[in-house]
Amino acid sequence: MGTAVHFDRVAKRFGSLQALAGVSLEIAEGEFFGLLGPNGAGKTTLISCLAGLARPDAGSVRVLGRDVVADYREARRLLGVVPQELVFDPFFSVRETLRIQSGYFGIRNNDAWIDEILENLDLTAKADTNMRRLSGGMKRRVLVAQALVHRPPVIVLDEPTAGVDVELRQGLWEFIRRLNGEGHTIILTTHYLEEAETLCGRIGMLKQGQLVALDETASLLRQFSGHTLTLRLGQGGLPAALVPRLLSREGAVCRLRLAGFAELEQVLADLRQAGCGVADLKLDEPDLEEVFVRLMRGEVSREAVQP
Amino acid sequence: MMLGFRTLFYKEVLRFWKVGFQTVAAPVLTALLYLLIFAHVLDENTRIHGVTYTAFLVPGLVMMSVLQNAFANSSSSLIQSKVTGSVVFVLLPPIAYGEFFLAYVLAALARGVVVGLGVLLMTLAFAPLQLAHPLWALAFAVLGGAMLGALGMIAGIWADKFDQLAAFQNFLIMPLTMLSGVFYSIHSLPPFWQQVSHFNPVFYMIDGFRYGFFGVSDAAPQQSLLVVSVCFAALTALTLALLKRGYKLRA
Ligand SMILES: Nc1ncnc2c1ncn2[C@@H]1O[C@H](COP(=O)(O)OP(=O)(O)OP(=O)(O)O)[C@@H](O)[C@H]1O
Ligand SMILES: [Mg+2]
Fold this sequence. Notes:
Order of helices and strands of chain B: HHEEHHHHHHHH
Oligomer: heterodimer
Bound molecules: adenosine-5'-triphosphate, magnesium ion
Largest sheet of chain A: 6 strands, mixed
Helix content of chain A: 25-40%
Number of domains of chain B: 1
Largest interface: A-B, 31 and 28 residues
Radius of gyration of chain B: 18 Å
């Protein structure tokens, strides 16, 4: 498989603010890639550099081998971008909007595909409604539709599910997954971490314009987030041997970190030995949220990450 | 021509046509009010270039409408899409900046010409139409409208807010068009102001356009055509340079 998107040491400042501090990242064809990071991390800026909406101060970006500056027309043809901001052209209906967008990409008579997109995004009933009359979530779906009119091999979704109801979110993901299955490369940013966890094969995390983690979702989970054991102690304090594992404590309820499932036995042995009674016990699976929080707090050093 | 360009042009035309009451009918009415008021006050005993004041006023008003509306179209379209953010829809597709320029300028010209024709039609009721050199008139209408369309693009790209655009319009476009000899022959001005008028490119557009109607003008039409062509070429080069750099459109 070739490289779908190649960011090479991309840097971008806005005045004194370093929005991107030399980001290098390769995304392979056919990947479902998640770009995560807190507000202001630089996700949208990175996407803007990819889409030609912003020009990097240094570094380069290529889409399927085409440089987004030198070969901008070909690069843009290969890209479909759903912008984060909820924008629309108030002069047109949904169908007009999509026909016009097709024309911009040099595509004539695109109605069959437009109808299919509308169907998949549950917009068929609104096809002839003016954009102004749509609800926020519907406008968001039209934005998704606009990004897909030219069947781009690389699809970039910048928080596509913000403000979209649960049912539609499912429908949208089903559609995007199908496109991914057909070979389209997907790049997604979202603040819904469970969404990223279930959808993305690989995840990159940005923090203050730097890539702080980059790995397959499963391995990221394995590497950075052990299981969490929640205990309600019946009698006696927490044995000294377990204090280093303590994540938080509220009265008799302690949360302990386990590197893996296997450590559970040791913990229970320690408790028994100290004569601690356990009133209640719960073991949590690792989740992306914890990885995210720990990475953003800086608990994991950059060296621990394999970019 | 490329479909991307054609679609953008079509979209820009549709944009003003859908609100034609405001973008076409209203400026026609404004021009007509000028004609009624000035002609009523001055027609009795004023003759300029050998024609009645009303007849003299018609080409000036038509051209002023072409210019102001061409400017308004490209500038308001750009600032609106910038402020609302919908400008991304034209920035994401593979439209070359030359096509981008052409689409906006031609749509601006289209609105200018539609309004100009509307004004011309309405004024037929007040003064008989005289068209001594229609090709000269057409050349000035097209070049002038395109030039103001390009200027409108520059203003729309430069302005971040509606009030900055309004300032551009009120402090540059309005004085340039109003003080260009629409309402008078500059030969009726004191020598100093005659000199000043010669630095106003809009003067040459109005004067040359009027030559197309009456065959007489304050400046030689060839000279006017040259001035207008040079100005248009300069503004085209500037606009293309801004678009190529992505000035204020691409961060
Ligand atoms: N056009 C701009 N001018 C000035 N600063 C900007 C501009 N765009 C972004 N920034 C700044 O760059 C930084 C990164 O912004 P960016 O929009 O890329 O963040 P993000 O990761 O997409 O955040 P969010 O999750 O909130 O969408 C922020 O500090 C932001 O304020
Ligand atoms: Mg963002």
